[in-house]
Amino acid sequence: MLRGDCPVVAHYGSAAGELAACVSAVGLADCSDLTKLLLHGPAAHLRQLSSRLAGTELAPGGAVYSGGVWWCAETAERLIVLCDPRLGARLHAVLDARVVRRVAVSLQDHSSDWSALAVVGRRARDLLADLGVYGSSGDPRCVPPLTAHAMTGADVLWLLESDRRALALVPRAHAASVWRTIDQAGQAHGICAVGQEALARYALIRRAADVL
Question: Which among 34, 15, 31, 33 has a CA at the least distance from the CA of 192?
């Protein structure tokens, strides 16, 4: 299965079974095909860029979803931008044009050297608490939307999109070990590896539930 020009796993045998796991328990998915860009520069310049492109200024640890793109402030000087690969080329061009006018800001594409692992489903919050992503309190309200939590010796950034979905950004060299750690902790919660078909269907279910 392709998303844009990127090959992805459609399913691991049964998309329906994987969807059921997300609905009742938790799924683990490889979303490394996402476009992953990093803007680095003076805080004032990045605040201006995020204000114009995302509609808001972001404090360190803040994240906002706008126009199909996640804008995430790792620090005051580092802004991570994530989107579907089908939007990636256009977004890269837009950001490149903006950066050219701000020579103090650099744009780097980490799509190939950062992996992205998604934890999705009804019990995602419980699993993240067990992993320590929420800190000692176990309360997601005590950590920012973009929070760092090292795993298996790897620096991992967690984007807490909602109480039922989180995305782990990890150096590609450590992705397999982080996947195994999440999978092992998730056994108590009925974890299942899921492909893109189940992820897409589950996202539709959640959007419908939000509307209702």
Answer: 15
